[in-house]
Amino acid sequence: MTREEIIEKGQVVYKKPTLLNDVPMHYCPGCSHGVVHKLVADVIEEMGMTEKAIAISPVGCAVFAYKYIDVDWQEAAHGRAPALASAVKRLWPDRLVFTYQGDGDLACIGTAETIHALNRAENITIIFINNAIYGMTGGQMAPTTLLGMKTATCPYGREVSLHGYPLHITELAAQLDGTCYVTRQAVHTVAAINRTKKAIRKAFEYSMQGKGSNLVEVVSTCNSGWKMSPEKANKWMEENMFAYYHLGDLKDNGIDSK
Amino acid sequence: MAKMYGATVVNVERCKGCNLCVVACPLHVLALTTKEVNRKGYNYAHEVLADTCTGCASCATVCPDGCITVYRLKSE
């Protein structure tokens, strides 16, 4: 059987999500952002919310996310995406409102907005990309940087005495009464990608059912910031990041509540 | 016995040569080019063992840029 025959007669098993624009993404080769963008685009399409999705883009690497996924977007000030999402959701309760933020935006400058928006049970979803570094500005230390990890601003590794401990924002969110679904996933293998897709879908559904705020953390790689090849970065993440950021659902109140 | 035949089509100009599809493929169908580059200067992914592909779509799932389209044909 020739390749042409398979392409002509066979069925399409996988293609680029239709909601993903043809514009080439500005992300570095192998960046996890691209995978999560694909998942978000897929989930919105599967839910039939194409015309009803409003996304809030952050400041950080994903700042141009509005160019790549073909839904309505609003750009927020640095760290203020959850506050803006709260406003949008209150004005348009029938819309699927979510923010897409990195760790510098969500866990550093926007900690207050994040915690309070989650605690107010705003019926929004926050997608949190945690790569333990500031990717866009050139690989500086973030609040989520692991102990001993070398970055541009802690060249000898992060030390407790000087820099304090890494911030577990997802565990923090799981303690809040306003949150409905809090989970931590990754996108390094096919199985993990499928689990992340299910998690995003669940979070979006809960937010549309008005069950509260949802947080989906995606432990990601930043191969440029970590100065590794994409495959090495994935391996490094499995060995080091997962030991500190344990994967799995931290809270799922959606099943029995209401 | 039914056999699955697969084929992948890589959007060469969109590919950034991150090598993740090559690592993800269980049957080593894909590889990066060694000499040819696309317009941006990246070595892109291409099929080297096209006959063994079963169309499992692992490569396309992990591709961060959505460059790969996978086709599958079942033959009796």
The overall pLDDT of chain A, averaged over residues, is: 94
| Number of alpha- plus pi-helical segments of chain A | 11
Total E-strand runs of chain B: 4
Radius of gyration of chain B: 12 Å
> Roughly how many Å apart are the termini of chain A?
55 Å
SSE string of chain B: EHEEHE
Domain unit count of chain B: 1
Distance between the termini of chain B: 6 Å
The chain-level structural class of chain A is alpha/beta
Please report which band the strand proportion of chain A falls in: under 5%, 5-15%, 15-25%, 25-35%, 35-45% or over 45%: 15-25%
Task: Strand order, main sheet of chain B: write it out.
Answer: 1-4
Question: What is the C-alpha radius of gyration of chain A, as a whole number of Å?
Answer: 18 Å
Secondary structure: helix percent of chain B: 10-25%
Q: Report mean pLDDT of chain B, rounded to a whole number.
A: 93
SS content category of chain B: alpha+beta
Could you give the count of β-strands of chain A?
A: 8
Alpha plus pi helix count of chain B: 2
CATH class of chain B: Alpha Beta
Q: In terms of per-residue confidence, which ranges of chain A show pLDDT below 50 for 5 or more consecutive residues? A: none
Kindly describe this structure.
The complex is a heterodimer of chains A (258) and B (76). With 258 residues, chain A is an alpha/beta fold. Chain A has eleven helices and eight strands. In chain A, strands 3-2-4-5-7-6-8 form a seven-stranded mixed beta sheet, with helices on both faces. In chain A, helix 9 (190-208) links the parallel strand 6 (179-186) and strand 7. In chain A, helix 4 (81-91) packs parallel to helix 6 (111-119). With 76 residues, chain B is of the alpha+beta class. Chain B has one domain: Alpha-Beta Plaits (2-Layer Sandwich), CATH 3.30.70.20. Helices cover 13% and strands 29% of the residues of chain B. Chain B is built from two helices and four strands. Chain B has helices spanning 20-24, 58-62, and strands at 3-10, 30-32, 45-47, 68-75. In chain B, the strands form two sheets. In chain B, strands 1-4 form a two-stranded antiparallel sheet. In chain B, strands 2-3 form a two-stranded antiparallel ribbon. Chain B is elongated. The interface between A and B is large, with 35 and 36 residues.
